[in-house]
Every structure is written in structure tokens, then in C-alpha cells.
Amino acid sequence: MGLQIDSCVAQHIGDRSEQQDRAAIFPHSKRRGMLVAVLADGMGGHTGGAMAAEQVIMKARDNFEVFAPAVESPRDLLKGVIDEAHVVIKLTRFTSEKEPHSTACVLLMQAGRVDWAYCGDSRIYHFRGDKLVQRTTDHSFVEEMTRQGKLTPEQARRHPQKNLLLHCLGSTREPRCDFGDALELTDGDSFLLCSDGLWAYFTDEELGGVLSVNTAREAAEILVQRARDRGRPTGDNLSLVILKLVDPDARQREQMRRMNELRNHPLAAKLGLTTDPDKRRKQ
Predict the structure, then answer these.
(1) Is the distance from CB of 99 to CB of 187 less than 8 angstroms?
(2) Most C-beta atoms within 10 A of its C-beta, which of 23, 24, 80, 122?
(3) Which domains occur in the chain, in start order?
(4) What is the mean pLDDT of each run of 10 residues along the chain (283 residues)?
């Protein structure tokens, strides 16, 4: 049996009056085991941000539905989603009271590989067990200052311009679109897409620890609750998508190994845990 996908999407409005984040997972209607995960953090007035984020979701859904891997590369799909969403968001400026913008994270998962593209400061993390393999680099002022050594990570977290983006969808200039991939997937790999309303409250180590020992749904519940506890009373909208790769056979073998260790423990017979009938008769 191959790897299976354990997934979850979660959101919270935080302490805002409106939810302007959007997140979704779309399985391909014709290709088993292929899916796209997408997350967008909208910005711009009472309705503009939500409209912008919604455009990212719809573009990901529509483009993925007609994706043809035989003639189209993963990068073609991902870049098309971001570029086309950018154009549509720019057009919605005419029906919104404030210029709408959005971040975008789009991840394509198929057999044996994962590809992604993003723009803005919403993040994609790849963990193996509890260890960080890679994460996206924010298109933000503080991330650039940190990269140049002008700010420490702690200073960046507290900087008054920590929310200033250098690139996003809907701006007057063409958005920057960066790419990443993971080509050797294994049991225990996890992918987390999340808005800054979530990742701002966690270290990489804490995120990896939560993801590695919980199901996708359990991890989502834990992360949302901790973010809310730490963010009140000024918490932003928060959204996340979790994709965990699980090998059921490997998990079953591990459970059997642990059970055998327990049964062979010196105290097992006294506790009635042994399955050896001779040992049971001696109790």
C-alpha cells in the first residue's frame, strides 16, 4: 500500500470583524491521488480583501480542473494560477472601495512529488517528522532586512513594519512568484500552508512538533487554539492547510513493534499484558 494523505483545512476570524483569508483543498476529478491546496490572505477595505482572496481560490480550482500533466508542467499550472489571479484582482479595483490585494500559496501534490508557488508572506512549510526541511521566504520588508543581516528574527517579529509586503497580487507591478518542490516523499512528510495570522505565533520547532505527533485535524485544532490564546485581543484572521503523508503499513508495523516491546517487558506478566499462555498460567 502506498502513501495516503491525511489533510485538514482550518480558519478563524481572530479579533477582526471580517474573515478575509481563504483556504481550500481540491482533489482532481479524474486523477486519483492528485490534489491542489491553496491559501490566500486578502487585504483591502471591507470587501476588497475577501474578494481578492476568493479570486485566488477560484483560479486554483478552475485551472487545476483542466490541468493536463502530459502537456503541462507543474510550474505552468502554478504560475498560471498566480498570474491570472493577479490580473483578475486588479480588475476588481473598479468595484471595491479600496484597492484589493492578496497573498497566494498554491501547492500541487501528485504521486512522488510536490510542487508549489507563492507570492507574499503566507508560508509553505515542509517537515519530515518534526524536522523542518524547508519553508518559503516571505516577500516582506522585514524578511529582506533579516536576509541582509540588518535585523535578527526576534527584531523582525517585533518590527513596526513587519506587515509591509514587497510583493503581492493586485499591485500595480507584476508580482514576484517563487517556486519550490519536494521530489522524494516518505512517510512522516508534512506540508503546512498558513497565513501570517498563524505562523507569527510559532517557532519552526513548535510547528514541527505539533505536526509530527498528531493527525492533521488534531494538529489544526491545536495550532488554531494556541494562536488564539497568544493573539488575543488583537489577533488577525488565521488560516491553514495541513497535508500529512502516511504509510498505513509502516504505522501498523511500528504499533506491532511497540506492542511486542511492551509484552516482553519484565512487568508485562504481572500486569496481564503477555500473550504467552504458559506465563499466564504461572500468574
Answers:
(1) no
(2) 122
(3) 4-246 (3.60.40.10), 248-283 (no CATH)
(4) 90 97 95 95 85 97 95 97 96 77 98 97 99 98 95 91 95 94 96 98 98 98 99 97 91 62 69 57 50
